[in-house]
């Protein structure tokens, strides 16, 4: 018999965990905030938007599937991102994936629907604050002006040649980036933000 003290579980480590301290330092000035939101539940959903299943799924989630290209819809602790004419990404809190998959599969009721847990594929990086657009503009070809890409807009695009799902919110942006590219994108964000980071009070900028 194995004693309880001898049983250990590997601590989960997010793809950008190593950058937490550097993100915090870059955010100290107030004009920019970098952070990671680790371990979000992410469910890829494929369904005919005109089918009865699509309506049932929206009802089951409490969030109707957004039908306008490049938009997001939210309700409760869930957010649904439009990725294509018949594809959405359902984003929820850590640990919600098993229940979400079951709920969506039940709502599909045997119709041709694909429900896949892709939570491990991506992590979420936050770029917020008044300088967020300036930082992203260094590596993103999209027009990020609020009139064009304001809160509630979603795009699959590239940032510094890395594929991301870019989500605009009220206070900035979230980047859903492949776990294998998280370190690269995090390093790029820190480098792109250097000119916008304010030195802490009492410290002079290097000559």
From TrEMBL:
Coiled coil: none annotated. Gene3D superfamilies: Heterotetrameric sarcosine oxidase, Probable tRNA modification gtpase trme, domain 1. Pfam families: SoxG. InterPro entries: SoxG, TrmE/GcvT-like. It comes from the Bacteria. This is Sarcosine oxidase subunit gamma.
